[in-house]
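FORM 7B: Structural annotation worksheet

SECTION A. Query
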Amino acid sequence: MQKLFSKISVQKTLLFISLFLVAVILIELKYFVSGIMGAVTLYILTRRFYLNLTEKKNWNSNLTITLILFLIVISFAVPLWILIEILIPKINELISDHDAIIENYNTVRKFLENNEFLKRFDLQFSDQRILQLVNKVISYIPSTLNWVGQTFGNIFVALFILYFMLRQSRDMEQRLKELLPLSRGSKKYLLRHTAALIRSNAYGVPILGFSQGVIAMVGYYIFGVENAIFWGLLTGAASIVPVLGTMLIYIPVCIYQIATGDVHNGLLLAVYCLVLVGGIDNVLRFTLLKKMADIHPLITVFGVVLGLQLFGVMGLVFGPVLLSLPGILYRVFEMERSLKDLQEHTGPDTEDHIS
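SECTION B. Predicted structure
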């Protein structure tokens, strides 16, 4: 028993030192943190596919990894092409035309100023204020372009790390399990649930964005919104914004349509977006994504806010995971305590019989 206790203490000490060194390295290489997290995410998403081809179908490992990397590049290339070739130039074009912005703004302003309900709040609208807002938005364009460049860099880092993670997958996983000073059942629970959380968020972000974007695009087209494809893409991209999400796009679109005199279509579009665009989020979260990992909606919302602050884009995946970890670790603590109590009553070999 004493030897076992000493072994566990050494493991805990070495684990603490390892985590400390990893934290120092990540701080010093913070520019590549998103790439490292991306590699972990991609590994969890592609691990089963890789092992199935190499171990069950006896594919060459290098050929399999090359195929996986190619598929990942293709999956990233399409949304990045849409972002670079369609969204950013179109946004830049829209906000650069100050006269058109002021003209459209004045239309909305007159509608709001003449609204009997809004008159009670004594809201002030001015051309100077809208120009200040436009200039502020323009100032974000260079940072957006920098973000695109940083994203390319982190994708390269993620793919580079992923190559070695897949090549050494079995050894890496075995060493990780050996380092954890936990029982086999607790290790299994911790790793399985953490991977499920990462998998759920990694699939959830693009699935929700794509679904809401397509549904919004159809609605914009039906109810006569100009540039329906562009606004649909923008609505899908806005789905990653915490709390407000797609409302950040479709509410101004509906208000503008009503303000320009198309009241009927504007009101119908508002109902359409509220019910379908907003509703598909709840439907997917409580059906498809709930099967992958049971994450409370509040954890998702506040996790995304926290994750974006800490990790940038990859915070969309790891923010909710970080907020979910206390619950997982508490469950692990309960499992370890129950096992310890059981061992005190039945003997030290209990784990071998119940694992």
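SECTION C. Observations
The chain has two domains: 33-167, 186-342. The mean pLDDT is 76.

SECTION D. Sign-off
Analyst initials: ____
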